[in-house]
Amino acid sequence: MTEDTSVKTLEKVVVRFSGDSGDGMQLVGNIFTNVSAGIGNQVSTFPDYPAEIRAPQGSLGGVSGFQVSVGTNVHTPGDACDVLVAMNPAALKQNCRYVKDGGVIIVDIDSFKEADLRKALFATDDPFTELGIRAQVLEVPVTALTKEALADSGLDNKSVLKCRNIFCLGLVCWLFDRPLESALHFLRKKFAKKPAIYEANAKVINAGYNYGHNIHASVSTYRIESEPARPGVYTDINGNTATAWGLIMASEKSGRPLFLGSYPITPATDILHELAKRKDVGVKAVQMEDEIAGVCSAIGASFAGNLAVTSTSGPGLALKSEGIGLAVIAELPLVVIDVQRGGPSTGLPTKTEQTDLMQALYGRNGESPVAVVAPATPTDCFTMAFEASRIAIEHMTPVILLTDAFIGNGSSAWRIPDSDEYPEIRPPYITPEHAAEISWRPYTRREDNKVRYWAIPGTPGLTHRLGGLEKDFTTGAISTDPVNHEKMVYTRREKIARIADDIPGLEIIGSGDADTLLLGWGGTYGHLRTAAHELCCEGVKVDFTHFRYINPLPANTAEVLRRYKRVIVAELNTGQFADYLQAQFPDVDIRRINKVQGQPFMVREVVDGVKAIINK
To answer: Which of 41, 142, 178, 264 could disulfide-link to 70, CB 3.0 to 4.6 Å?
Structure first.
């Protein structure tokens, strides 16, 4: 490295890998993330999949991206990147707008032939000038160097070309001074059954690292700050995997076996995949023939005494609505996971939105209240999956867990918790002795929280039936009496409302004396918290709070909202949560920042939006 090469020391940096959907961008992004997390950096990722399945190679529609921010105080994958890896002209064209002025762009110049430029719809033979790029461009003959490194490997040309992404990974590891041994560990694990492929990739990653070192590339290299982490075992985990693991923890803490009845749907399928691997801890995961069968099998498993779960995305939640209504009137515990994506209909299957909130709250026939919760980050998916399970079992109700594609596919560094960090889950069982004492019937309920007792089938003396017709409040027999029906409607509604006594209150981040409160819910947490911090640094006094419990709302919600002159709700829809809050608190001045583009917020969008509202 020559002396004129600048070394930038930063609190956090952002790297974006981009190429064709078959170029392995998700793989190298994940490896770089794991390596960074392993040396003590905080991480936040944004896998950006193309909506098209195998679009033509080199086309704009087929570009796949993976963005990761690493360092300290990392809450988002970043608005703009310090380094962009572009494997072809299409990747450059689609992603150059995300590069910071003065950042670094690494391109495989072997893929910038005239035919490649035409596929990407460039009008000239100079894409860098045409795009007006103001960054340090490192033109690397990645394809040629990969072939040279593997000239004696015995691999065919197709297999050799699949290693180009690993060459770029080696070069990026050099830029950021990442240890290659950690990356090699992940490659060794991935290709454990294919030693020849591992050896090829090991050779190529070293070639990429040595290329950066040997050419003394006159581009910026980076030193990333880190801070001491809480002692423990850490791993990089995405939201869908964390959700699956949270359900397993809930099964252990409740003593009820875990059952998943599911049908594959993007972006929720990985939950089914993960739980299908966990027979070793007693998980039963069943791929059903459709969404309706998925929820109905889970309802049957719940009646039989299981912690019952069904997973889906927005279109599947619509199909499950009648089944969820059955679980409401039967008052059975059920966890329904909705990994939200762009809609309506099949919409944008690989993109993120928060547009299923009203469907989760109201999307069933009749008065059909359910609890609704939403994790804030990929790692919080573990906690909120546990919480959804706890609420479902302890309050005998369906609970809808609203994650989204951003946090479901995105990942963060996570400290694996000890078992004693999570409480025991206490099912409201009825025993034969207690049943005789209180003259139990199927809908006999506790007075303090209106929760009916759970009679596990097969328990002597507790034979009973449940169904979808209205039940008599006292006997549990079918009833069409109008007054009884109204009483049951209000009882089921009150049962959900009383969950507010069993969840934490809202917490405020900020000085507490601001006139403006910025708030959001679910997976927007990192962007909104970062925006609030930046506003305060700019002298704009803003407090911040975030909702993970949607129905019921935390008990102190009204008191918190009424402290502020204005409340700004930022969400990835046209204002569904803002409408929900405004309906319940009409005296609160609620303003809105909305985005519905299938993409997460940029922090700068939120900052500018808050300033515009305050100044207006």
So the answer is: 41
